[in-house]
Amino acid sequence: MTLEFFIGHINYWLFIVLMMTGFYIVVSAGNLVKKVVGLNIFQVAVFMLYISIGKVTGGTAPIFPTDMMGKIKADPEIVYSNPLPHVLILTAIVVGIATTSLALALIVRIREAYNTIEEDDILEIDARTARAENIIHGEAMGGRA
Amino acid sequence: MATASETPHIALTLRDHLPILQVLVPLCTAPLIVLLGDRRIAWGLAFLAAVLSLVVSFLLLMQVMDGSFISYHLGGWAPPIGIEYRIDAANAFVLLLISLTATLVLPFALRSVADEIPARSHTLFYACFTLVLTGLLGVVATGDAFNVFVFLEISSLATYVLVSQGLYRDKRALSAAYDYLIMGTIGATFFVIGIGFLYMTTGTLNMADMAERLVGQGDNRTVQAAFAFIVVGMGLKVAIYPLHLWLPAAYNYAPSAVTVFLAATSTKAAMYVLLRFMFSVFQPEFVFDTNLLLWILAPFALLAMFAASLIAVFQTNFKRMLAYSSIAQIGYMLLGISLFSVTGLSATMVHLFNHGITKAALFMAVGALVLRSGNTFYDRIEGMGRVMPLTGAAVVLGGLSLIGVPGTAGFISKWVLVQAAFEADLWWVALLIVASSLLAVIYMWRVIEVLYLHTPHPEAIHKEAPLSMVIPMWIAAGACVWFGIDTSLTMGAANTAAIGLMGGTDGMALTPTVGGLLGTGH
């Protein structure tokens, strides 16, 4: 692998690093808020991938000059970047914000109900509830709930 | 590039706008419900939206039953530049399932939701419900890859809220909703990465256009990565066996009405997207070695059929048992895909519908039992079949359909699946399908034994469920029998859909054959 190859694909390398960082945090973090942060990094990595592929070498901002009447005077000499991925990512950012806010709202309710936001504690409380259910409902059926 | 002003004015009737009305009606209803803010009106509006969606989806299916498709251009912008809604037999069939379930669930929800959720949350509950409906219908109707992601997230986000509403009965609904949110978002993000790779390769987002440009790109590593990302991402939403971990808790702790709707529709819509991408966009016969599909997907499908069924056998809660059974049933659909033939895909499509109505009937029975017994642990619902004869009988009918007894809808799908296995010379797969159905006999028999052969629990209310719950339940249970005897609608649509899907690019051709209705001014 040459240095040129590495630098030529720098946006993809950054994407991979960022995506894996985010993904690792989602999987490994025990704190629910940290998981959401990881999810955000994971999503931002994808945003970066999309935005970086919209760049055309030597391209400028994709804004057509217009004359006084509002008629487009496109110059075929000028190279423009691709605006479509940017527009897509605007939508994806909105989705990401909605997801984050919903997740945080859920965490608030979890904290009210469980009095903790550590995953291990929540799992333990859930397991204890399940054991209690086992004793009430399971033994009557000769099995486990 | 055709702009809106260049498109000649064509007189349009409401009929031409059906594809967009399918999504628009529930989408506009949701904010209306929130703005009016009255809980009585909320239910009425949601029900009206569901009924209108059902009418629209039925009209659409009638138009495309002959194998043609409708291409609707949003705002008159012609594809591939503009967003296209494309209705063919495959998605019209799924649209019908989704809107039919919504129409059945809402009357059922009236009592069930009143019982399980405090009154102050009802307005927002029904608003979220219509949003889920919007998202699912949009995912299925659209022919634009990025649009799929947007609608997918609309429906998923609203679903997480609905699942969390179970917190008034059990606080574990909150952690279930959170887990579902994390896994669902990872799935959706994987899907978006896949779409990004496809866009990098083809420069288009229109699924039909994408399919044409992907021909002969099978060796392209970017395309292969896109395929993997899309299959894994959608696999999380479908709950394919090793990716199913969110499902049991989400189904178990969600309010009963939500579980009915989710079990019957949301995994089915995701399954449709998976089918659409695997067959219409990628066309595996060009892109990939088809045997690979069998050896990658079939083991997971078989694992789901056996492992999830076995876990279901050992449950002591009816609702949780049905959740595991759902994972097993998704295995059958996946098996149909992995056999890679028209018959196999027909089996998947028809099982999608049949399993939807079967699980709707069963989960509605669960809702009725929760109303009368408080919960569905086996020791609480003991003998309830005797005091609730209609609910008990619906469980029996739904159970028979789940097992696949002749004369029920479940039999039709398993019969076609076994046929597909024999067609592929995989007799041992056919044997395994029958063997896993035997596991369904065991777990359904346990429930039926509990419901009928014990004396009723003293703390339960010994009364039949209200008519508003029994009638939708029996429409679904009746449908299990009806579609087990008269298969012209289900098998007809499934077959047309399967032929269209296996047709690959031909099935997604850019030139509209019939009913290219709108904005085709060039």
TrEMBL record, chain A:
Membrane-topology annotation of the record: Multi-pass membrane protein
Subcellular location: Cell membrane
InterPro entries for the chain: CPA3_antiporter_subunitC (IPR050601), NUOK/Mnh_C1-like (IPR039428)
Keyword Cell membrane found: yes
GO cellular component: plasma membrane
Ranges that cross the membrane: 12-33, 45-64, 84-108
Presence of the UniProt keyword Cell membrane in the record: yes
Predominant location: membrane
Alphabetical UniProt keywords: Cell membrane, Membrane, Transmembrane, Transmembrane helix
Pfam families found in the cross-reference section: Oxidored_q2
Record family assignment: Belongs to the CPA3 antiporters (TC 2.A.63) subunit C family.
Protein name, entry field: Na+/H+ antiporter subunit C
Organism: Neptunicoccus cionae
TrEMBL record, chain B:
Domain NADH:quinone oxidoreductase/Mrp antiporter transmembrane: 144-439
Localization: Cell membrane; Membrane
Keywords noted in UniProt: Cell membrane, Membrane, Transmembrane, Transmembrane helix
Molecular-function annotations in GO: NADH dehydrogenase (ubiquinone) activity
Membrane spanning stretches: 20-37, 44-65, 89-110, 122-142, 148-168, 180-202, 222-243, 250-272, 292-314, 321-340, 383-406, 426-445, 465-485
Gene Ontology CC, one term: plasma membrane
GO BP annotations, alphabetical order: ATP synthesis coupled electron transport
InterPro entries to which the protein is assigned, alphabetical: CPA3_Na-H_Antiporter_D (IPR050586), NADH_UbQ_OxRdtase (IPR003918), ND/Mrp_TM (IPR001750)
PANTHER family: NA(+)_H(+) ANTIPORTER SUBUNIT D1 (PTHR42703:SF1), NADH DEHYDROGENASE (PTHR42703)
Function: NDH-1 shuttles electrons from NADH, via FMN and iron-sulfur (Fe-S) centers, to quinones in the respiratory chain. The immediate electron acceptor for the enzyme in this species is believed to be ubiquinone. Couples the redox reaction to proton translocation (for every two electrons transferred, four hydrogen ions are translocated across the cytoplasmic membrane), and thus conserves the redox energy in a proton gradient.
Protein name, UniProt field: Cation:proton antiporter
Taxonomy of the source species: Bacteria, Pseudomonadati, Pseudomonadota, Alphaproteobacteria, Rhodobacterales
